Amino acid sequence: MYVVGLTGGIGSGKSIVSSLFKKLGTDIIDADLAARKVVEKGSSALSQITDYFGKDSLLENGTLNRAYIRSQIFEHQEKRQWLESLLHPLIRMWIEQSLSKARSPYVIFESPLLLETNQHQLTDRILVVDIPENLQILRATQRDGNSTEQIQAIIDTQISRKERLKWADDIIDNSETARIENGYNHSCNLATQVKELHQSYLTLAANKKLTP
Predict the structure, then answer these.
(1) Do residue 151 and residue 125 come from a single domain?
(2) How far apart are CA 175 and CA 133, in angstroms?
(3) CA-to-CA distance for 170 and 179, rounded, in angstroms?
(4) Considering its fold, how many domains does the chain have in total?
(5) Which of 1, 8, 2, 12 is nearest to 176 (CA)?
(6) Looking at 49, 72, 103, which one is the last position of a domain?
(7) How far apart are CA 104 and CA 11, in angstroms?
(8) What would the pLDDT profile of 16-60 be if each residue is shown by its tens digit?
(9) How many CB atoms neighbour CB 70 within 10 A?
(10) How far apart are CA 69 and CA 8, in angstroms?
(11) Which of 86, 103, 120 is at the close of a domain?
């Protein structure tokens, strides 16, 4: 199996890029989906989180109160560390199981924390979706309704743009699509970049298969 790790900062457009790869027939493994799956209602992880964070960590329907947990881990470093030590091994296990079930010639593994949590160890190649930080903040605030300060706090917990680009084998420039809010849609350029990389990854996957 040939695995391409797809990453980028908040608001960079990772999900748009992965959806374009999916349209080309590529299996997508989503680390955010894994993070939701391991804390589903009735899971052992959710029970442990409730014991640690208290009853406010649950919504009325018995599911995880993500807004409350988010506020807690941003305010308390020790709580963040505890939660990561619980969830990261479970998330990695879910990802590995999903990768083993994939059937397309290569797989896109989308993860916002690909580098921060050593998930890049599961990949053959790293693809970074890149936009300037000011556009990250603009897009993320418009999309999520969070304040600039909240988005900046999330950016500060992630690897820097400069360091992320050092890891990249391939880079998608998504800065033009960030101008959609001004009436310009340059998604054709984004689709072109994805199609070119798709052909490259098909070749790389075929070559890996032939390697003893």
Answers:
(1) yes
(2) 10
(3) 22
(4) 2
(5) 12
(6) 103
(7) 27
(8) 999 999 999 999 999 999 999 999 999 999 999 999 999 999 999
(9) 14
(10) 23
(11) 103
